[in-house]
Amino acid sequence: MSIALSAESTIDLPKELLSQFQIVTVPFTLTMGEKTGLDGEVTPDELFAFTDKTGKLAKTSAVNQFQFEEHFRALLKDHDSLIHISLSAELSSAYQNAVNASQEDEFKGKVFVIDSRSLSTGIALLAIYARKLIDQGGKVEEIVKKVEARIPFDQASFSLESVNYLYKGGRCSYLAMIGANILRLKPEIYVKEGKMVPGKKYRGNMATVVMEYVEDTLNMFNHPDLENVFITYSTVSDGLVDQIKARLKKAGFKNIMVTKAGGTISCHCGPHCLGILYINDGAH
């Protein structure tokens, strides 16, 4: 049985990795004033420039049910079934829209939608695991169960330069934003039960903060599956990624993949956002 694998553009993978793992994406839509474009075509730099100029965030629109139906229909022309791994239902309506599409008569028993309870390359980690199981010849229902079993261990977190973008996006209160700016705090956010929640707060220059965040994350989530890890960022200073790669290599990770966050994720996190993401179930 031929099984297709898909996700929304919020998986934050470049074309090379999408091709390598045979993942097909369907894009979110981004609107900056009167200009509208697709996630993947609109760059984070364009989004940041729009916010700097207007003081407003670009608007992100989830994939709607009709778009999912078209996406599923196209993939099922060449496959018997399809596994779609979606951005956390706590963060977007995309998951429910995908579920609604999958319940149409033509897709019943063929399309299986998974709520990743994650974002960005946290979704990618699950998709890569699904691809491995597909290539091993697993049955679609068994693959879905195995992927869902790893979701609670999907460690997704980021270090932010400021909370300004979180405030503009309604994910941070005014008082918290003012307090963080006055104290020059650089917060960590991580995904817990599908939601973005605040973590530790750091002080200092961004390079020092990021390395402290990496160390703290490795200490807190200290039972990793060492097969794959992502370094995902919106913007980053020269040389910092190499330092992080060296630290992750020392920790024993085998495949260290570096990706740039797409427009939808960058729009909510802002510039100078960087995270390390891996599945924290080393006994798996």
What does this structure look like?
The chain has 284 residues and is of the alpha/beta class. It has two domains: 3-32 and 60-149, Rossmann fold, CATH 3.40.50.10170; 153-279, Hypothetical Protein Tm841, Chain: A,domain 3 (2-Layer Sandwich), CATH 3.30.1180. The protein contains eleven helices and 13 strands. It has a six-stranded mixed β-sheet with strand order 10-9-8-13-11-12, sandwiched between helices. Strands 2-1-6-7 form a four-stranded parallel β-sheet, sandwiched between helices. It has a three-stranded antiparallel β-sheet with strand order 4-3-5, with helices on one face. Helix 3 packs across helix 4 (94-102), helix 5 (121-135) runs antiparallel to helix 6 and helix 9 (206-220) runs parallel beside helix 10 (240-251). Residues 171-183 have low confidence and may be disordered.
List keywords for this structure.
284 residues; alpha/beta; Rossmann fold; Hypothetical Protein Tm841, Chain: A,domain 3; 2 domains; 6-stranded mixed beta sheet; 4-stranded parallel beta sheet; 11 helices; globular
